[in-house]
Specification:
Elements lengths: L20 E5 L19 H13 L4 E4 L4 H8 L7 E4 L4 E4 L3 E3 L7 H15 L2 E5 L2 E5 L7 H15 L2 E5 L2 E5 L4 H8 L9 E6 L5 H9 L3 E5 L9 E3 L2 H13 L1
Parallel strand pairs: 1-2, 1-10, 2-3, 10-11, 11-12
Antiparallel strand pairs: 3-4, 4-5, 6-7, 7-9, 8-9
Length: 251
């Protein structure tokens, strides 16, 4: 993301008034704490209850926008994920009550690229993650291999003409798409139209969502330590976000 799109580091929480607001949440590192491996993430019953309550309080105005596929989110959230809009694979696929599940065909080269990443992961004791529209290498357990892993993923992305995506202790190749475009597309739904979006996210992959939210009169909310960002607000960690949700549900 160009430097001019990044603001000073924000250090104030978002407002609690949600009269004309729609809520967009990243998943990993935002609603749930990061884990050593993608399948190690724990979804607590308390979070599911909060999401159900938000969906009831703000019908049609809650969405999850994640780098995970919709299939992965369904596996982790179960039927709860059917209560709100979902965008997966960094916005390349979407599911809404109005339009159903909208997803492009995987690029023809993705299968070959995924196989190359899987072989690299096996050879270097890294974690390989297969997604519907992408494939990732996670090097959280071996941070000393970051440069080699990222260079390899960059090479695979260039060779197969796929999108390169960096994240926290991971890099992936994927179909085109970004979270900002997903937010913009979801905001045309009747329940969201005319509202102000708040986009909550922790990673550089969420910056496009922050920019898109601001362009529609809303704002981004950074989850985590202060850093240059396009977000307007900040909450310190996943627990702080969960506390914020509790507070708005009590109003």
């Amino acid at each position: 993301m160009p430097a001019e799109r990044l603001s000073a580091t924000p250090d104030r929480a978002p407002p609690h008034s949600l009269g004309d607001t729609s809520l967009f949440f990243d998943f990993d590192g935002t609603l749930v704490d990061l884990a050593a491996t993608p399948d190690g993430v724990v979804v607590e019953a308390g979070l599911l209850a909060q999401l159900d309550a938000l969906a009831e309080r703000l019908p049609g105005r809650v969405a999850i926008v994640s780098g995970r596929s919709i299939a992965q989110l369904d596996a982790m959230l179960g039927g709860h994920a059917r209560l709100f809009a979902v965008a997966g694979s960094h916005g390349a696929e979407r599911r809404t009550p109005e339009d159903g599940h909208v997803t492009p065909e995987p690029p023809a080269a993705l299968e070959r690229a995924a196989a190359e990443l899987a072989d690299f992961a096996t050879a270097h004791d890294l974690v390989f993650e297969a997604k519907s529209l992408g494939a990732a290498l996670h090097y959280r357990a071996h941070p000393e291999l970051e440069a080699d892993a990222v260079q390899f993923v960059e090479q695979v992305a260039e060779t197969h003409q796929l999108t390169l995506q960096r994240g926290k202790m991971m890099a992936e190749v994927r179909s085109p798409g970004d979270k900002g475009a997903a937010l913009t597309a979801l905001m045309v739904a009747p329940a969201m139209a005319g509202t102000k979006p708040l986009f909550f996210g922790d990673d550089v992959t969420d910056e496009d969502g922050f920019v898109a939210a601001a362009a529609l009169g809303g704002a981004g909310v950074l989850i985590g330590a202060m850093r240059p960002t396009a977000a307007t607000y900040r909450l310190g960690d996943v627990t702080a976000l969960r506390d914020w949700i509790t507070a708005i549900l009590e109003i």
